[in-house]
């Protein structure tokens, strides 16, 4: 799922980085989109690997959450 409303983030690339945008030590403000996906537990490592391969940043930011199926109310 893609959330089409952009968010904003300020990132200072650290010493030793090779930033995709900006320069080491300079605070860089970027506009980003949020993507969410749901996959089976058996696919999570492949999904994370695909995210890392497709993302232009050296260290993309993402969270992994396990969804539980709770029956009843």
UniProtKB/TrEMBL annotation:
Keywords attached to this Swiss-Prot or TrEMBL record, sorted alphabetically, are: Hydrolase
Q: PANTHER family from the entry?
A: NGG1P INTERACTING FACTOR NIF3 (PTHR41774:SF1), PTHR41774
State which Enzyme Commission number(s) the record gives. Answer: 3.5.4.16
Note the superkingdom of the native organism: Bacteria
What is the protein's species of origin? Halomonas elongata
Give the molecular function GO annotations.
GTP cyclohydrolase I activity
InterPro entries from the xrefs? DUF34/NIF3_sf, N-reg_PII/ATP_PRibTrfase_C
Q: Please state what class of enzyme this protein is.
A: hydrolase
Output this protein's name: Putative GTP cyclohydrolase 1 type 2
């Amino acid at each position: 799922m893609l959330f089409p409303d952009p968010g904003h983030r300020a990132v200072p690339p650290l010493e030793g980085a090779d930033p995709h945008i900006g320069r080491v030590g300079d605070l860089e403000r970027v506009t980003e989109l949020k993507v969410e996906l749901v996959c089976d537990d058996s696919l999570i490592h492949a999904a994370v690997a695909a995210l890392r391969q497709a993302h232009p940043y050296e260290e993309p930011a993402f969270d992994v959450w396990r969804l539980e199926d709770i029956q009843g109310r």
